Amino acid sequence: MAAAGSTPGTPGTPRVLRAMNDRAVLDLLVAHGPLTRTRIGELTGLSKPTTSQLLGRLEAAGLVHTTGSLSGRPGPNALLYEIDPGAGHVAAISADPGGITALVADITGTVLGRARVEADAVAEDVRHRTAQLVAEAVDGALRQAGLGHDDLRAAVIGTPGAIDPHTGTLRYAPHLPGWHSRTLRDDLAAVLGTPVDIENDVNLAAVAEQYEGAAQDYDNYVLTWLDEGVGAAIVLGGTLLRGATGGAGEIGYMPLPGAPLARGGSGDGGGFESLVSAYVVRELTGGEATLAEVMADDDALGEVARRIAVGIAAVVAVVDPELVVLSGSVAQAGGDKLRARVEEELTGLALPRPEIRISVLDDDPILTGALRSALTQARDQVFDTA
């Protein structure tokens, strides 16, 4: 029976303290990989008996297992402990106008399966079977991994636009008509068999940069996405800025000199996007050249840098980030030469000068961000031993 005036799970009780220690050790194993009992004790400050009891408890719960031993030192070989990869699995999905890509990973983040379903987002039949197409992509990844829906603990989907927290509908993405249903989140959860989060694709790219890209160790940064679509993710004080309707960072619509105003949400163009999207950049040399070929032309490179700098200057004047990361196909094609020219264009302006970096992530940053977000959710569930 609980003591008078206390309830199970009250902070400070042995149960909660054990759960906190469990989570600390599990997070260490995620971050560092296999560790010995002695090293875990050193990193956590726990005594040897407490560490041994903790590891025994986690092993019995199926959260850790031994993976060999560490030799080459005096005394008996020390057992190495690691996260049991089968403790949980997640799905990460990226939706774009040309199709849906899904991957499945274990709780350690190791990707086990990947699949893509090609589908024209504006095709009439696609509008009414969006959830089924997502399920098809995820099912393909699950089959490759040898898993089923029951193995999934979380799923995160990245799409252009943003889910309005008040209405549950997708905003700022008129080119994805099949994703505008008010019941989409529930429909997706039903076909996947697990709760689903729908997140803005550029926000997820920013998550990827923070975990393993150019924005590591930064709490105030802006990721500027320069591709067929244009957007930004704004992180201030380590927190992603979403806005009242989920649309913070939709800088593609931002009014700028030389760009027509974007009106009515029709997707017909206007604003910053009409100056720097991949399509517009290709048109600078007639539309036949690749982005890499356009960026090899010094005049075109300078014009793109000038346009990007104008947009960045507007954002910097409002949010004052330490860092701006340039990502997407335009940024990748321009590389360090584009970064240097953008910095030159910002020189001398009467506003803060953030560091400018080009994203160096090799894989799809949207999928990477979706995976990281899904892993965070799954670990919060699986690693909670309270």
Which range best describes the helical content: under 10%, 10-25%, 25-40%, 40-55%, 55-70% or over 70%? 40-55%
Note the gap between the termini: 17 Å
Any idea what the shape is?
A: globular
Radius of gyration, in Å, reads 24 Å
Please give a structural write-up.
The structure is a single chain. The protein has helices at residues 14-32, 37-44, 48-60, 124-127, 130-145, 184-192, 201-212, 273-276, 278-283, 291-296, 298-319, 329-346, 365-382; strands at residues 35-36, 64-70, 78-83, 89-96, 99-106, 111-118, 152-159, 162-163, 170-171, 196-200, 221-226, 230-236, 239-240, 323-327, 355-358. The protein has 386 residues and is of the alpha/beta class. The strands form 4 sheets. Strands 6-5-4-7-10 form a 5-stranded mixed beta sheet, with helices on both faces. A hairpin with a 7-residue loop joins strand 2 and strand 3. The two termini are 17 Å apart.
Set down the secondary structure blueprint.
Blueprint: H1 14-32, E1 35-36, H2 37-44, H3 48-60, E2 64-70, E3 78-83, E4 89-96, E5 99-106, E6 111-118, H4 124-127, H5 130-145, E7 152-159, E8 162-163, E9 170-171, H6 184-192, E10 196-200, H7 201-212, E11 221-226, E12 230-236, E13 239-240, H8 273-276, H9 278-283, H10 291-296, H11 298-319, E14 323-327, H12 329-346, E15 355-358, H13 365-382
Parallel strand pairs: 4-7, 7-10, 11-14, 14-15
Antiparallel strand pairs: 1-3, 2-3, 4-5, 5-6, 8-9, 11-12, 12-13
Helix pairs in contact: 2-3, 5-6, 7-13, 11-12
